[in-house]
Amino acid sequence: DVLQQALAQRRVLWLEHGALEGDDTDAHIDTLARFAPGDAIVFQACDDASDSHYAPLQAMTAEIAALRTTGGQPYRLFPLPWA
Predict the structure, then answer these.
(1) Which H/E stretch holds residue 27?
(2) In 10 A of CB 42, how many CB atoms?
(3) What DSSP state is assigned to residue 26?
(4) H-type alpha helices, the chain
(5) Digit-coded pLDDT (tens) for 51-74
(6) Three-state DSSP class for 22?
(7) How far apart are the first and last CA of the chain?
(8) What is the H or E stretch that residue 33 is in?
(9) Which pTM was predicted?
(10) Which pLDDT score is estimated for 4?
(11) With contact defined as beta carbons under 8 Å apart, do 32 and 68 qualify?
(12) Is 20 helix (H, G, I), strand (E, B) or coil?
Protein backbone atom coordinates (compact mmCIF):
# COMPACT_ATOMS: atom_id res chain seq x y z
CA ASP A 1 0.00 0.00 0.00
CA VAL A 2 2.78 2.43 0.90
CA LEU A 3 4.62 1.81 -2.38
CA GLN A 4 1.42 2.15 -4.40
CA GLN A 5 0.65 5.47 -2.75
CA ALA A 6 4.22 6.78 -3.03
CA LEU A 7 4.36 5.95 -6.74
CA ALA A 8 0.72 6.84 -7.43
CA GLN A 9 0.09 3.41 -8.94
CA ARG A 10 -3.01 1.22 -8.89
CA ARG A 11 -0.97 -1.94 -8.32
CA VAL A 12 2.55 -3.13 -7.66
CA LEU A 13 3.86 -6.53 -8.73
CA TRP A 14 6.42 -7.89 -6.25
CA LEU A 15 8.90 -10.75 -6.60
CA GLU A 16 10.40 -12.52 -3.60
CA HIS A 17 12.93 -14.64 -5.50
CA GLY A 18 15.79 -14.13 -7.91
CA ALA A 19 19.35 -12.88 -7.55
CA LEU A 20 22.48 -12.86 -9.66
CA GLU A 21 25.87 -13.54 -8.12
CA GLY A 22 28.26 -10.63 -8.43
CA ASP A 23 25.47 -8.19 -9.23
CA ASP A 24 26.59 -4.90 -7.71
CA THR A 25 22.99 -3.60 -7.64
CA ASP A 26 21.91 -6.16 -5.00
CA ALA A 27 19.39 -7.66 -7.44
CA HIS A 28 17.59 -4.56 -8.63
CA ILE A 29 14.56 -5.79 -10.49
CA ASP A 30 15.72 -4.45 -13.86
CA THR A 31 18.56 -6.99 -13.87
CA LEU A 32 16.02 -9.81 -13.40
CA ALA A 33 12.78 -8.89 -15.16
CA ARG A 34 11.37 -6.08 -17.26
CA PHE A 35 7.95 -5.26 -18.57
CA ALA A 36 7.77 -5.10 -22.33
CA PRO A 37 5.04 -3.50 -24.42
CA GLY A 38 1.54 -4.70 -23.70
CA ASP A 39 1.20 -7.85 -21.68
CA ALA A 40 4.80 -9.12 -21.88
CA ILE A 41 7.55 -9.70 -19.34
CA VAL A 42 11.16 -10.37 -20.35
CA PHE A 43 13.14 -12.08 -17.60
CA GLN A 44 16.40 -13.81 -16.76
CA ALA A 45 16.13 -17.61 -16.75
CA CYS A 46 18.46 -20.51 -16.02
CA ASP A 47 17.89 -24.08 -17.24
CA ASP A 48 21.13 -25.60 -15.93
CA ALA A 49 20.34 -27.41 -12.67
CA SER A 50 24.05 -27.45 -11.77
CA ASP A 51 24.26 -23.64 -11.91
CA SER A 52 24.02 -21.77 -8.60
CA HIS A 53 21.46 -19.42 -10.19
CA TYR A 54 19.12 -22.26 -11.10
CA ALA A 55 17.03 -22.54 -7.91
CA PRO A 56 16.47 -18.81 -7.30
CA LEU A 57 15.69 -18.12 -10.96
CA GLN A 58 13.34 -21.11 -11.19
CA ALA A 59 11.50 -19.78 -8.12
CA MET A 60 11.35 -16.33 -9.72
CA THR A 61 10.07 -17.86 -12.98
CA ALA A 62 7.24 -19.54 -11.09
CA GLU A 63 6.36 -16.23 -9.40
CA ILE A 64 6.33 -14.41 -12.74
CA ALA A 65 4.20 -17.14 -14.34
CA ALA A 66 1.62 -16.68 -11.56
CA LEU A 67 1.26 -12.92 -12.20
CA ARG A 68 -1.82 -11.68 -14.01
CA THR A 69 -2.61 -8.54 -15.96
CA THR A 70 -5.26 -6.15 -14.69
CA GLY A 71 -7.66 -8.06 -16.96
CA GLY A 72 -6.84 -11.33 -15.20
CA GLN A 73 -4.84 -12.82 -18.06
CA PRO A 74 -1.34 -14.31 -17.75
CA TYR A 75 1.52 -12.24 -19.11
CA ARG A 76 3.35 -13.37 -22.23
CA LEU A 77 6.72 -14.52 -20.91
CA PHE A 78 10.05 -14.23 -22.70
CA PRO A 79 12.91 -15.92 -20.82
CA LEU A 80 16.46 -14.79 -21.54
CA PRO A 81 19.06 -17.56 -21.32
CA TRP A 82 21.66 -17.34 -18.59
CA ALA A 83 25.07 -17.49 -20.24
Answers:
(1) none
(2) 14
(3) S
(4) 2-7, 54-66
(5) 998 999 999 999 999 999 989 999
(6) coil
(7) 37
(8) strand 33-36
(9) 0.79
(10) 82
(11) no
(12) coil
